[in-house]
Specification:
- With about 325 residues, this protein is of the alpha/beta class.
- It has two domains: about 20-235, UDP-n-acetylglucosamine1-carboxyvinyl-transferase, Chain; about 240-335, UDP-n-acetylglucosamine1-carboxyvinyl-transferase, Chain.
- Helices cover about 30% and strands about 25% of the residues.
- It has a four-stranded mixed sheet with strand order 1-14-16-15, with helices on one face. It has a four-stranded mixed sheet with strand order 3-4-2-13, covered by helices on one side.
- Helix 1 packs parallel to helix 3 (about 90-100) and helix 7 runs parallel beside helix 9.
- It is globular.
- The two termini are about 30 Å apart.
């Protein structure tokens, strides 16, 4: 094991590049799997979660070639089945995205995952898949939790699902249902939280020529059947959730830093960190896909933060609140329990 020593400094200075978005990297991999032909994903994030998604699409038949900072994905339809299970590791997004997609394979697929994911809900997604004609079975494989998905396609039809447990349920269905036999209507029986993540899924789908109709208040999704994914070349944008930690560090140390690879036009909900910092009195500039923080002296302003659509920002906003002159409130974050 390597020891790392970090010495304290009073201020930060310099320019860094934000890491690529995990959420976009995973969505682009799934869409590329379902597209017959060659898709290129440039500047993807290498992490345990994205590698779990990469491993999953390869198990379902995708051919992936890594060339420098590019993933070159050759899609595979119909999806293949292999004897070994798809190991989702500790990636909840991989599990929830791939589960519906596995129903499109001709035979059965099994998905295993870590014990830690057992604590995260999955039953609502299994119930919706049952509504749409997909049979699943939960069991254990080599002391690991396992879900068996009976392939043969998705019938389609109507289903309802909670919107306030995980937006990943909805994204998983949006990936698979365009290839169903019948049109699909998904109704939410509670308000959708983390709306931006569903918008990101919709954006990636449209880049692959798949179209979804979403109601204005995001409580109903209409998906035409027998659509066809087409290959697409992607550039993965920088990740605002990861960058938020360095932005906050600059804010509380009266520092001047520049973070590149952050697109102001992104659909990422965690881009809200810029408005949060501004409301706390931090000087924030945005230009040419980079964010510039010009130091802040003294205490920050307190905040009243609705976290229902930005749960990933709660930890760093809690830190910022410690440096505010007054009481801050962070609410509607019950999904983080």
């Amino acid at each position: 094991m390597t020891d790392t020593t970090i010495n304290p400094v009073k201020n930060l200075a310099g320019t860094i590049v934000a890491p690529s978005s995990k959420s976009y990297s995973q969505r682009m991999l799934i869409a590329s799997l379902l597209s017959e032909g060659r898709s290129v994903i440039s500047n993807p994030l290498y992490s345990e979660d994205t590698i779990a998604t990469l491993r999953a699409i390869e198990t379902l038949g995708a051919k992936v070639r890594i060339s420098g900072s590019k993933w070159i994905v050759y899609g595979s339809l119909p999806l293949k089945n292999k004897p070994e299970p798809i190991d989702c590791g500790e990636s909840g997004a991989t599990l929830r995205f791939i589960l519906p997609v596995c129903a499109l394979a001709r035979g059965s697929s099994s998905l295993t995952f870590s014990k830690s994911l057992e604590k995260r809900p999955i039953l609502p997604l299994l119930q919706s898949l049952q509504d749409l004609g997909v049979r699943t079975e939960t069991r254990e494989f080599c002391s690991k939790p396992e879900i068996l998905v009976k392939g043969g396609g998705i019938r389609g039809g109507k289903t309802s699902i909670p919107g306030d447990i995980s937006s990943q349920f909805i994204s998983g269905l949006l990936f698979a249902c365009p290839l169903a036999s019948l049109d699909t209507i998904i109704r939410l029986n509670s308000p959708l939280e983390s709306t931006s993540y569903v918008e990101m899924t919709k954006e990636v789908l449209e880049n692959h020529n798949i179209f979804i109709t979403i109601s204005d208040n995001f409580d109903q999704f209409k998906i035409k059947s027998d659509q066809k994914y087409t290959p697409n070349n992607h550039i993965v944008p920088g990740d605002f959730s990861s960058a938020a930690f360095m932005l906050a560090a600059a804010a509380i140390t009266n520092s001047n830093i520049t973070i590149k690879n952050l697109e102001s036009s992104t659909l990422q909900g965690d881009k809200t960190i810029l408005n949060i910092l501004k409301s706390m009195g931090v000087n924030v500039g945005i230009e040419n896909n980079q964010v510039i923080i010009a130091g802040h002296k003294g205490f920050l302003n307190p905040i009243d933060l609705d976290a229902r659509n930005i749960p990933d920002l709660v930890p760093i906003c809690s830190v910022l609140a410690c440096y505010a002159n007054g009481t801050s409130k962070i609410h509607d974050a019950h999904r983080l329990r």
